[in-house]
């Protein structure tokens, strides 16, 4: 049989842009992508500024990330429909990095995370991101939604804090509670109006850009009514009308060491978020993304965003889904979305000064509501005790401790839960009749599967079957079961037909059984071993004369009976004539 080789470098890392251009990309495709790109740009415009402000930096930093990073993600990425830019999931990490290391530290961490993402993609580690347990993704996403919402309470209510807003959630809640007497009626009105418009537009005009409509109406009404509310202009002095010149961040060793934990967190979260977004796009379109190419593109995008002073860049699920629903045909839509944002920056930047911060906070509040995954959270709480524990540990640690700590703890618990479940699924059947695989396949209605009575009739032969993935988590249980079978039989037969994989610990357990059989003068037969299973067993010394391999249980039983008959004949020849006469042999 010819061996099927894996995909080559070109197949793994060719951008989807090249793929669609090869597929006779035409004027109709360009028109569809232009409409989709404009639609996504309208959605991304207020979100990019809101995410930047919530992250503790000026709103233009979010636009730089969406323009520069978003363009590169679409141009070089492995997904046809991925939209890159600043994401709400990064707000907590970015805000903490800015508070600890300043803007320069943030740019350096973003730059380093880009290098890490490129390395992850080039080492072909993108496929491993799919092993993040579902309760972990739901837990950290819901927790991030809670943390972001709490961070927006100050702007939603127009509160005036006596000092800087704390980063940790409990001190933050205490500070917000102390500042409640300073609540602004104008800010509350703007926030409520923005939320109401978003809900109404989504209900009655779902194809309209609800966020942008709400922001524009709120800004116009706030200016017309002369409301005393903070705006982008009063807080930040507006936004520049051009992209800054690219420059390298401070690459001194001390600074790199200082921001390295933040860079690792950015790379971890960025890889998870971007590949989840690509999977969402695949599920909506039936296409398949190239995960490692996507990570390389995300890495280059983060490096470029840092050079232009932008935030972290990742795949954004909401904007990607909007891109698909708007009828995009390929990555050109994402590239055009960035160009439309650049045009806004060049032409309409002064208008952003009139946007109330309470309106942007309301936009983020709606984003948090959609991020919270309320239905999935409730379902996992009811699903099983193990999933609920993983979910709650991740959720609470992200809220009260740290996002990276929550993800790692949740992943560790999820891995232990999986191992426990896999170990419980491994079974050792013995002492009953063993059916052959063909008989078991023909049996209808399930029921217990055991040994064929004709094969199990010999008391000198012990038969058992191991079923399930035989690995270190189940080795102790299987070893104890094997130790209990038989009372010094002439032969052990262990059927591996239902063992898909076996690790070193399991092989050592079988080696122990082989040594035990040899001490008892018995023979160990292993049947139904796959090539991968047999390879591990042979590597651990489970080989003749300690053990013998047979294709089937029937063949092993025949060999065992023949061996016993040969042993009896040899013993009879060695006995004296008087002993043979007493034994009835003469």
Automatic annotation (TrEMBL):
GO cellular component, one term: membrane
Record-annotated membrane-spanning stretches: 34-55, 61-78, 106-125, 132-153, 173-201, 208-236, 256-281, 293-318, 338-367, 388-419
InterPro entries: SLC26A/SulP_dom (IPR011547), SLC26A/SulP_fam (IPR001902), STAS_dom (IPR002645), STAS_dom_sf (IPR036513)
GO biological process: transmembrane transport
Annotated stretches, region: Disordered: 560-586
Cellular location(s): Membrane
Top-level taxon in the UniProt lineage: Bacteria
Comp. bias intervals (Basic and acidic residues): 563-586
Mode of membrane association: Multi-pass membrane protein
Stretches assigned to the STAS domain: 451-560
Record-linked Pfam families: STAS (PF01740), Sulfate_transp (PF00916)
Keyword field: Membrane, Transmembrane, Transmembrane helix
Annotated protein name in UniProt: SulP family inorganic anion transporter
């Amino acid at each position: 049989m010819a061996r099927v080789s894996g995909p080559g470098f070109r197949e793994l890392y060719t951008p989807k842009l090249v793929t669609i251009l090869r597929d006779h990309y035409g004027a109709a495709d360009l028109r569809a992508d232009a409409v989709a790109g404009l639609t996504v740009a309208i959605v991304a415009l207020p979100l990019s500024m809101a995410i930047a402000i919530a992250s503790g930096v000026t709103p233009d930093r979010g636009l730089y990330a969406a323009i520069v990073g978003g363009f590169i993600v679409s141009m070089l990425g492995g997904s046809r429909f991925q939209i890159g830019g600043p994401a709400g999931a990064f707000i907590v990490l970015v805000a903490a990095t800015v508070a600890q290391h300043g803007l320069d530290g943030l740019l350096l961490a973003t730059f380093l995370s880009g290098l890490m993402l490129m390395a992850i993609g080039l080492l072909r580690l993108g496929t491993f991101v799919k092993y993040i347990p579902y309760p972990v993704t739901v837990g950290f996403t819901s927790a991030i939604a809670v943390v972001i919402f709490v961070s927006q309470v100050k702007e939603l209510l127009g509160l005036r804090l006596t000092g800087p807003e704390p980063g940790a959630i409990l001190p933050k809640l205490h500070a917000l509670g102390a500042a409640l007497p300073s609540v602004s009626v104008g800010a509350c009105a703007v926030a409520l109006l923005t939320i109401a418009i978003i809900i109404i537009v989504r209900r009655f005009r779902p194809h309209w850009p609800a966020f942008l409509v709400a922001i524009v109406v709120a800004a116009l009404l706030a200016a017309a009514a002369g409301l005393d509310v903070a705006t982008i202009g009063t807080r930040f002095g507006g936004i520049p009308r051009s992209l800054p010149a690219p420059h390298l961040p401070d690459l001194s060793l001390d600074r790199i060491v200082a921001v390295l934990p933040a860079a690792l967190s950015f790379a971890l979260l960025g890889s998870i978020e971007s590949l989840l977004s690509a999977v969402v796009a695949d599920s909506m379109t039936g296409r398949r993304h190239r995960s490692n190419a996507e990570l390389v593109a995300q890495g280059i995008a983060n490096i470029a965003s840092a050079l232009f002073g932008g935030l972290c860049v990742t795949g954004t699920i909401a904007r990607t889904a909007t891109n698909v629903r708007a009828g995009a045909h390929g990555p050109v839509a994402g590239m055009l979305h960035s160009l439309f944002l650049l045009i806004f920056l060049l032409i309409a930047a002064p208008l952003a000064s009139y946007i109330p911060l309470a309106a942007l906070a309301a936009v983020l509040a709606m984003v948090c509501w959609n991020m919270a995954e309320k239905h999935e959270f409730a379902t996992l709480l009811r699903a099983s005790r193990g999933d609920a524990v993983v979910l709650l540990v991740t959720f609470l640690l992200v809220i009260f401790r740290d996002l990276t700590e929550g993800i790692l703890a949740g992943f560790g618990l999820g891995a232990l839960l999986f191992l426990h479940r896999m170990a419980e699924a491994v079974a050792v059947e013995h002492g009953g009749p063993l059916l052959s695989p063909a008989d078991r396949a023909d049996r209808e209605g399930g029921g217990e599967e055991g040994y064929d009575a004709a094969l199990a009739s010999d008391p000198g032969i012990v038969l058992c079957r191991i079923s399930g993935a035989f690995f270190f988590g189940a080795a102790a249980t299987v070893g104890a079961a094997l130790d209990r079978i038989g009372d010094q039989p002439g032969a052990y037969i262990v059927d591996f037909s239902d063992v898909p994989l076996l690790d070193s610990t399991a092989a050592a357990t079988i080696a122990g059984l082989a040594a035990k059989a040899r001490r008892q003068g018995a023979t160990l037969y292993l049947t139904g071993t796959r090539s991968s299973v047999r390879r591990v067993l042979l590597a651990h010394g489970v080989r003749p004369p300690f053990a013998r391999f047979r294709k089937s249980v029937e063949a092993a039983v025949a060999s065992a009976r023949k061996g016993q008959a040969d042993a009896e004949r040899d013993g009879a020849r060695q006995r004296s004539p008087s002993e043979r006469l007493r034994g009835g042999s003469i």
